[in-house]
Amino acid sequence: MQDLEEKRGKRRRLTTNAINRQKRIAKRAWNAEHLLKQPHRFAKHHALDCGRPGCMVCGNPRKIWKQRTLQEKKMMQERIDYESDSNLE
Question: What long-range pairs does 21-30 form, CB within 8 A, spacing at least 24?
């Protein structure tokens, strides 16, 4: 029981620290009084993230600029290498 309470306390402390860190970032970045009235929203939402998936700064580059992931690029390169090796033989 003691171990469970210690884990729960640690989790709550880390969450509170993360929220306070994001509040400090929001205060420095812009006048975000409307965000600071709801501080717990920073538990899973970063202060500098606008929240729009199509945003050029905050969005996923794969969806915005149609870029391939590193894993896809590696797979394509291996496929090209394999095809070029098989064509030589």
Answer: 22/46, 22/47, 23/47
Q: Please give the full DSSP string across 24-58, using - where no structure is assigned.
A: HHHHHHS--HHHHTSGGGGGSS-TT----TT-TTT
Measured between alpha carbons, how far is 67 from 30 in angstroms, rounded to an integer?
31
Interatomic CA distance for residues 40 and 37, integer angstroms: 9
Q: Quick count: other Cβ atoms within 10 Å of Cβ 11?
A: 10
State in Å, rounded, how far the first CA of the chain is from the last one.
67
pLDDT in tens, 26-80: 888 776 666 677 777 777 777 777 777 777 777 777 778 888 888 889 999 999 8
C-alpha distances in Å from residue 71, one per residue of 12, 41, 78, 83, 87: 36, 33, 11, 18, 24
pTM of the model: 0.53
